UniProtKB/TrEMBL annotation:
Transmembrane segments: none annotated. It comes from Cercophora scortea. Its cofactor is Ca(2+). The keyword Protease applies. PANTHER family: PROTEASE S8 TRIPEPTIDYL PEPTIDASE I CLN2, SERINE PROTEASE AORO, PUTATIVE (AFU_ORTHOLOGUE AFUA_6G10250)-RELATED. Residues 1-22 form the signal peptide. This is Peptidase S8/S53 domain-containing protein. It is found in: Secreted, Extracellular space. GO terms for biological process: proteolysis.
Length: 643
């Protein structure tokens, strides 16, 4: 059976990450406990400097095994596969919570273990979603509970974390537990030597260049679309309609993380020249955990957000666009995708749900700090829009497979509720977000070393999101005459997951790819099992998007431009379906792969890295360009035929 094969492949892929779960081996200190996770190697940037103080406070988060996750594909296909008689019959949030919560026995037996070890009941809490147990503890008590030793690890920047090399749980409850934090993890969530929190959230920072006045194309000009991308170029390339009308019930959301902040004057400047939008047109702002909007100029704080909103809004106007602005001004780059998920799903919060305190920002922050958000985590305060575009990601190898899988399943749940989740694929070819390749043991090779295993990027590798790669007109190419190629001023990211099994919707596409265009690398370079998720799913123009910035214009390149532009197309399709009395399209991928006629194939270009040519564009799906570039009118026809 396909589903059984997927489950086997998933647990096989977990072994590739270096965090091995559940080996039935007794530990010396307690024969009733078994090793649950063990780190195979310490990343080269970290070193153990001292034992952790036994009296230091430590809060354990126990991720319980959720029920029915093995049926994820069955459930998703029922509501999103074009051949399903249940297409579009999405679930409510309560149905999702009821189906996937941990079992009563998992909760009861895990709590019984904690109580038997002397943990006071007042320090144990269960999440509203019934899939997390939190224990307010100390390093010493946690070490005893998990039969481990905690140490303080430090990197070259002076950042420190408390972690262990392995940990154990009673054999009788091992099957109830996904993972426990903090234990073997120390990628992000860094505590500096001064005690302030300094977490790293990787972003696909778009590449930019200033535009001299003589390079600015006319608002509707298509003469320079191979050099400068404008809304007019995108409409011409992908048959996107202009002069659309707003549709009640339709919605489109862009997610940004502080310090990235849009500037209204920059939007007005862009809209007045390229958007046909009146001055003052702004997004609906949903502020999350502070929702800090910086007033600092420059591409470092305005570029990403301005870029996303310029095109999301220009291509969908007068349909409203919602901005989810995540994080406060304290310790910039602290907020994560999970903090955003908190805000649209109250069962996923730290105090009542799914965060990891090592990586995800925890609130309140110190109220005496200027700009700090001193309130509680915002849990379930906003509804998700029908379409979400997110231009941020991280290396799949940066965190344990269990953490990635947990987050990925939240996107699956959004899909079940009818939400289309889009992520930029990344901008570094087959290397990681910061250009790191991988050593054979899964640790990072030096960033200056152009060798090693390919380093795929998450969440693009999650099978329940739509990963958007990058394309471009060839040099001196013309709209309507020349076929697009893989973006070439930077290498868009693509490849194959080391964690997630191949979803059924990709089976035929990947089989054809390997049968006709096997890239020729062996397992020393990438996961060549042919049983794992390939990404991206499609490509869209990604070079030189003219964007309002600091009172002028700059051109930005990156798949962080492609995703919001494609999201606008999906939002417009939703508008057409809603006008026809139908629902939003929800999770896109089963329909996309079943109808490749919606795409113009990209057959030229490649994505390099790690000392190799990487992957090349070929006929059909490939890891350089996915299914190709979309056509709005063909998308509209396909999706309007569905229930």
């Amino acid at each position: 059976m396909i589903l059984a094969g997927l489950i086997r492949a998933f647990f096989t892929a977990l072994a590739l990450t270096g965090a091995t779960q559940g080996h039935p081996t007794s530990t010396p200190n307690n024969p009733l406990k078994v090793v649950h996770e063990r780190r195979d190697a310490v990343h080269r940037e970290w070193r153990l400097i001292a034992p952790a103080s036994a009296t230091a406070p430590l809060t354990l988060s126990i991720g319980l095994v959720q029920r029915n996750l093995e049926r994820a594909e069955e459930f998703m296909n029922a509501v999103s596969h074009p051949d399903s008689d249940q297409y579009g019959q999405y679930w409510t949030a309560q149905q999702v919570a009821d189906v996937f919560s941990a079992s009563d026995s998992a909760i009861a037996e895990t709590k019984a273990w904690l109580l038997s070890e002397g943990v006071d009941v007042a320090r144990i809490s269960t999440s509203a979603g019934r899939n997390w147990i939190k224990v307010v503890s100390t390093v010493g008590e946690a070490a005893s509970l998990l039969d481990t030793e905690y140490g303080v690890y430090e990197n070259d920047n002076g950042a420190r974390v408390v972690a262990c090399e392995s940990y154990s749980v009673p054999a009788a409850i091992k099957e109830h537990i996904d993972f426990i934090t903090p234990t073997i993890q120390f990628d992000s969530g860094l505590v500096s030597t001064s005690g302030s929190v300094k977490r790293r959230r990787d972003a696909f920072a778009p590449k930019s260049k200033k535009l001299p006045a003589h390079q600015h194309p006319g608002v509707d000009s298509l003469k320079n679309c191979s050099e400068i991308t404008t809304p007019a170029c995108l409409r011409a390339l992908y048959d996107i309609p202009a002069n659309v009308e707003p549709v009640a019930g339709n919605s489109y959301g862009i997610v940004e993380f502080a310090p990235q902040s849009y500037n209204q004057q920059d939007l007005d400047g862009f809209f007045s020249v390229y958007g046909h939008l009146p001055n003052g047109t702004s997004p609906i702002i949903n502020k999350i955990d502070g929702g800090f909007l910086s007033d600092e100029p420059g591409s470092g704080t305005r570029g990403e957000s301005n870029l996303d909103l310029c095109y999301a809004m220009a291509l969908t106007y007068p349909q409203n666009v919602t901005l989810y602005q995540v994080g406060d001004s304290v310790a910039w780059n602290t907020a994560t995708n999970n903090n955003f998920l908190d805000a649209i799903d109250g069962s996923y919060c730290t105090t009542s749900g799914g965060d990891d305190p090592l990586w995800d920002a925890t609130y309140p922050h110190d109220a005496s700090t200027p700009g700090a958000y001193a309130g509680p985590p915002q849990c379930g305060v906003y509804n998700a829009t029908n379409v979400l575009s997110i231009s941020y990601g991280r290396d799949e190898a940066a965190r344990p497979a269990s953490y990635n899988a947990r987050e990925c399943m939240e996107y699956m749940k959004l899909g079940l509720m009818g939400v289309s989740v889009l992520f930029s694929s990344g901008d570094s070819g087959v290397a990681g977000v910061t250009g790191h390749c991988l050593n054979p043991d899964g640790s990072y090779a030096p960033v200056w070393a152009d060798y090693g295993r390919f380093n795929p990027i998450f969440p693009g590798t999650c099978p329940w999101v739509t990963s958007v790669g990058g394309s471009a007109l060839p040099p001196n190419g013309t709209v309507g005459r020349d076929r697009e190629v893989v973006a070439y001023t930077f290498p868009p990211s693509g490849g194959f997951s080391n964690v997630f099994p191949r979803p059924a919707y990709q089976t035929a596409a990947l089989a054809s790819y390997y049968a006709r265009h096997d890239p020729g690398y062996n397992a020393s370079r990438y996961n060549d099992t042919q049983q794992v998720r390939g990404f991206p799913d499609l490509a869209l123009a990604a070079q030189d998007y003219v964007t309002g910035l600091d009172g002028g214009f700059q051109a930005f390149s990156g798949t962080s431009a492609s995703s919001p532009a494609f999201g606008a197309m999906v939002a417009l399709v939703n508008g057409e379906r809603i006008k026809a009395g139908k629902g939003p399209v929800g999770f896109l991928n089963p329909v996309l792969y079943a109808h490749p006629e919606m795409f113009a194939d990209v057959v030229e270009g490649s994505i390099s890295g790690c000392g190799t040519p990487g992957f090349s564009a070929v006929p059909g799906w490939d890891p350089a360009s996915g299914l190709g570039t979309p056509n709005f009118e063909r998308m509209r026809r396909v999706f309007l035929r569905l229930p």
